[in-house]
Write a structure and sequence with these properties.
three-stranded antiparallel β-sheet; alpha/beta
Length: 311
């Protein structure tokens, strides 16, 4: 996603998962207070997550993958923003956290260029606290996109293979929606014009990929919108995510961020194996199971790990 602020849109996702948290299996091992600063004792790995549904699901995937290798795991779920979790990682209160490489780089160095996933990871490693490291990035990304509704896709013969460049002649007929910041960001209307030559009919200020944006796109109040690429609404409403070949929206690959001295090598190997199997299509499906079908994220995590040969 484009920024730490973008990750904050996840408060909306919490509404869909608040009821799940009480029954989430990871709570069996966790401390009652996720902000408690006590370090793990002995060989226990502490898996943390931010306060949105996808992060909780990814933490369950990481934790269960570690358990499958005989590693003792406890959870600190639903902590909060990157400003909080980064500090807890630095002091060893958390051993591993699901992160998004480009968003983390933007947090550590807002001016850093993002030319490739490998380059982003290398840049992050130079900026991280020396006690931390990134493991292998997965192909799975959760980042900003310009998505169109099903009616617009049908009208203009656009598919999931279509790119933002395909909107150049169409954009003057379309209203696009997103957060107020999307109107003035390079990773927004400014970049869409500079990089792809897109000039839309108008812009409607909504929210950062949340329910206002989703509803406006569903109801055709806007025909295009900034939607996050693993938002289950994409599946539910048959939105079409347009490809971004020029990487205007940067990189947001799901990547384990680790407190080095707290993670054994077998744990590193287990988490890298998860990254190798996890792609965006899979993550969207898993998110949909949790957020649309109301499945327990721990059950979803276990089932996927089993199907991937990792559980």
């Amino acid at each position: 996603m484009t920024s730490t602020a973008s990750r904050s849109r996840s408060i909306v996702a919490l509404a869909a998962t608040a009821a799940l948290l009480a029954g989430c299996g990871s709570s069996d091992d966790e401390n009652d207070n996720p902000l408690a600063g006590d370090k793990a004792s002995g060989d226990t790995v502490v898996v943390g997550s931010n306060n949105f549904a996808e992060s909780i699901l990814l933490a369950d995937i990481y934790g269960e993958a570690l358990k499958a290798k005989g590693i003792k795991v406890t959870y600190k779920p639903n902590i909060g923003s990157r400003e909080t979790t980064y500090g807890l990682l630095k002091n060893g209160s958390i051993t591993v956290l699901p992160e998004y490489n480009g968003s983390l780089l933007a947090y550590l160095d807002p001016k850093a260029a993002q030319e490739s996933a490998d380059a982003v990871n290398a840049a992050v490693k130079t900026k991280l606290d020396k006690k931390l490291t990134l493991l292998e990035a997965s192909p799975a990304e959760d980042k900003d996109s310009v998505s169109i509704n099903a009616a617009t896709a049908k009208k203009y013969n656009l598919t999931g293979e279509s790119t933002l460049a395909d909107l150049k002649d169409i954009a003057p007929e379309l209203v696009i929606g997103g957060s107020p910041e999307f109107q003035t960001r390079q990773q927004g209307l400014v970049g869409l014009k500079d990089v792809y030559g897109l000039e839309f009919k108008s812009f409607k200020a909504l929210d950062a990929g949340g329910p206002l944006t989703q509803a406006a796109l569903t109801k055709n109040t806007v025909q295009a919108a900034d939607i996050f690429t693993t938002d289950p609404t994409i599946t539910k409403e048959k939105f079409v995510v347009l490809q971004d070949p020029e990487n205007l929206f940067g990189f947001a690959n799901v990547t384990p961020l680790v407190y080095k001295s707290g993670m054994p090598q077998e744990g590193v190997d287990a988490l890298n194996a998860v990254s190798a199997k996890l792609d965006t299509k899979t993550l969207l499906d898993l998110d949909s199971q949790v957020q649309l079908e109301n499945k327990d994220p721990l059950d979803v995590a276990k089932e996927w790990l089993k199907s991937a040969g990792l559980g």
